[in-house]
Design brief:
Layout lengths: L6 H13 L2 H8 L3 H15 L4 E4 L2 E4 L1 H24 L10 E6 L1 H19 L3 E6 L13 E6 L6 E7 L2 E5 L2 H4 L16 E3 L4 H9 L9 E3 L3 H9 L4 E5 H10 L10 E2 L3 E7 L6 H19 L1
Parallel strand pairs: 3-4, 3-5, 8-9, 8-10
Antiparallel strand pairs: 1-2, 5-12, 6-12, 7-10, 7-11
Helix pairs in contact: 1-2, 1-3, 1-4, 2-3, 5-8, 5-9
Length: 299
């Protein structure tokens, strides 16, 4: 992000300069202190000059910071006065909503229910979850933000890593306790292998587990959710990330017959348009998603 000079950056700067505290500014702006610090850091980097110096427990503007503060304060005062002037008395409150694109398997296993928590925290009256696995499938005409399974960079967009992916076999307890047995990695060749790709990930796992023979029965699905559903029904073994399988493993609906894992070829990222990255609601939702994903990985 080379030129973060938008109103959102300047609003953050003006609030910190006026109050003298990142934490107090975050409370006023209704975002996290980390988000405030990051915006100040980005603005200073873009301008090439320090805007604050620390004075005890307070932040005081430098000479350049004071000059920018005066201009920003005047500008925001005029904007606020204009908004108050044109606002219609008695107007109905505007509905607060957000639209997010999420991979279907992640939405079903984790995110869809989590979204209600964010709606309550952010005071949303409406949200919409769209289906999109990778970046190319996201309809940015509709989505405010997206969780994608992919590999950056994406020109014109801002992204944050949610989770690195480690893939391990999962199956139902019923399959684990059935015949033929699953006592060693080579036993997977006696069962259906469930794929969401061309079979490359399972081949990588078999190599990592020192299994030379390949499975004679392979089922290929267009989505990971289909493969996971078949695994839940005891039809075979699927390669699923720890991040995605966590709740199923905790509830006992799925089990890991073997601990051997391979790094996924892609990872989960939280993505938004670069031009919208400093909008308060986008910043807040990004921070919330990252916090929740860290909690999920600690389970």
């Amino acid at each position: 992000m080379k030129h973060p000079h938008g109103l959102a950056y300047l609003r953050v700067f003006e609030t910190v300069a006026r109050i003298g505290s990142v934490r107090s500014a975050a409370i006023e702006l209704n975002v996290t202190p980390g988000a405030v610090s990051q915006q100040i850091h980005n603005l200073q980097d873009a301008l090439g000059v320090p805007l604050f110096v620390r004075d005890g427990r307070r932040l005081r503007p430098t000479e350049a910071g004071r000059a920018l503060q005066r201009s920003a304060a005047v500008a925001f005062s005029e904007i606020d006065s204009c908004v108050e002037e044109i606002a219609k008395p008695g107007a109905l409150p505007v509905s607060r909503s957000v639209t997010i694109a999420v991979p279907p398997a992640l939405a079903v296993s984790w995110f869809a229910t989590q979204m209600f928590d964010f709606a309550q925290v952010a005071g949303l009256t409406k949200f919409r979850i769209l289906s999109a696995v990778d970046f190319a499938q996201v309809d940015w005409r509709l989505a405010d933000i997206a969780i994608v399974y992919g590999s950056p960079p994406w020109k014109g967009f801002s992204w944050s890593l949610m989770a690195n992916i480690v893939l391990r076999p999962v199956c139902s307890p019923r399959l684990l306790n059935s015949s033929p047995s699953l006592k060693s990695p080579r036993d997977v060749s006696d069962h259906w292998l469930l794929h969401e790709d061309d079979g490359s990930e399972w081949l990588r796992w078999l190599t990592a587990a020192n299994v030379s023979q390949t499975a004679s029965r392979n089922a290929h699905f267009s989505t990971l959710m289909m493969a996971m559903t078949a695994a839940l029904e005891g039809r075979g073994l699927a390669l699923v990330s720890d991040f995605l399988a966590s709740d199923y493993l905790q509830s006992g609906r799925l089990v890991r017959p073997f601990e051997t894992g391979i790094e996924g070829s892609r990872s989960y990222y939280c993505v938004c348009a670069e031009s919208r990255a400093t909008e308060p609601q986008i910043m807040r939702m990004t921070e919330w998603i990252l916090d929740r994903s860290r909690m999920q990985q600690r389970i």
